[in-house]
Design brief:
- 33% of the residues lie in helices and 19% in strands.
- The protein is built from 8 helices and 9 strands.
- The chain has a 7-stranded mixed β-sheet, sandwiched between helices.
- Helix 7 runs parallel beside helix 8.
- The protein starts with 17 loop residues before the first strand and ends with a strand.
- The N terminus is likely disordered.
- The structure holds S-adenosylmethionine.
Length: 284
């Protein structure tokens, strides 16, 4: 198991656009930056799938998101370092479900679903997974009489049962979303990058408006989903790209959670527009 510590400090950023007289391609610049980055090196040493782990570790250090036995859903899990942290922090008996649009090798102890989270049928599939009694969760399908038959006419459901059913659907303690749109691959095919999704995450299109708009769609979908599945007292973390609409998103978080924080962990690259919302203690 990996050891967790936070005394790491990035040693400054790299303006590596030009080496000697040779201008590097953006993909080469990304590789050089990865190579020189202290969090990247530390992730490799600790057996973590990517440096992104340190963002979640720093958020957890501050807000104590996890406990043993919890259910965690990790949206946009690939390559899997947040899920690795979640598995570690929810021991014993926790369960972690990762969802990603691209194929990736699941980290040990993580169940995964491959699909587009924005598709309603994928969300229905995820919810089905979460309430499946074979996965150790209770299922309450209706009100039964002594003989095991339903007291209600087909199609009818009492108000109390409706509330119970809603509660029963809420089986998740923490929803994480580090989703950002995977850009189409234009180079590096020789690296077999389909099975190495981190190579496809040179992240962001370079167009701030596009990155912001795409991230708002993903965050809003993650928040709506959380409103369906999170238990009272549950927590939510989502990455977003800053822009005009993030205030609206923050307000929606305030409607659902007792406390809301906006932060940029130290391990998030300073030149990037990414930031994080943390929603703590879902309201009843
Ligand atoms: C920055 S990476 C996540 C890194 C991950 N948290 C980790 O620690 O390894 C973002 C992921 O979001 C996924 N993603 C983006 N849009 C998605 C969608 N609509 N449905 C599912 N996954 C999505 C991408 O495929 C990518 O793997």
């Amino acid at each position: 198991m990996f050891a967790l510590f936070f005394s790491l400090r990035p040693r400054g950023t790299f303006a590596l656009g030009v080496v000697g007289q040779i201008r590097l391609s953006s993909s080469k610049r990304w590789q050089a930056r990865q190579h020189n980055d202290q969090f990247t090196r530390e992730a490799a040493v600790q057996g973590l799938k990517s440096r992104a782990a340190f963002k979640l570790l720093q958020i957890d250090e501050k807000y104590r998101l996890f406990k043993g036995g919890q259910t965690v859903v990790d949206l946009g899990y690939a390559p899997g370092s947040w899920s690795q942290v979640a598995v570690n922090r929810t021991q014993p008996n926790g369960r972690v479900l990762g969802v990603d649009i691209i194929p990736a090798q699941p980290p040990k102890g993580v169940s995964t679903i491959q699909g587009n989270f924005l598709a309603p049928e994928i969300q229905a599939y995820i919810q089905d997974f979460l309430r499946n009694p074979n996965r150790g969760r209770p299922r309450q399908l209706g009100v039964l009489n002594d003989a095991g038959g339903s007291l209600l006419e087909p199609g009818m459901i009492s108000e109390a049962a409706q509330t119970d059913r809603e509660k029963c659907e809420r089986t998740v303690d923490v929803v994480l979303s580090d989703m950002c749109e995977p850009w189409h691959q234009t180079s590096g095919f020789w690296k077999r990058s389909l099975s190495d999704p981190y190579r496809r995450m040179m992240n962001t299109s370079g167009n701030n408006f596009r990155d912001h708009a795409g991230s708002m769609d993903l965050c809003n979908a993650a928040l709506r989903f959380s409103s369906d599945v999170l238990k009272v007292g549950g927590h939510f973390v989502c990455k977003f790209y800053q822009g005009a609409e993030d205030k609206d998103l923050e307000q929606q978080l305030r409607n659902l959670f007792q406390k809301v924080h906006r932060l940029k962990p130290e391990s998030s690259r300073s030149e990037s527009k990414e930031s994080f919302f943390v929603g703590l203690d879902r309201r009843p």
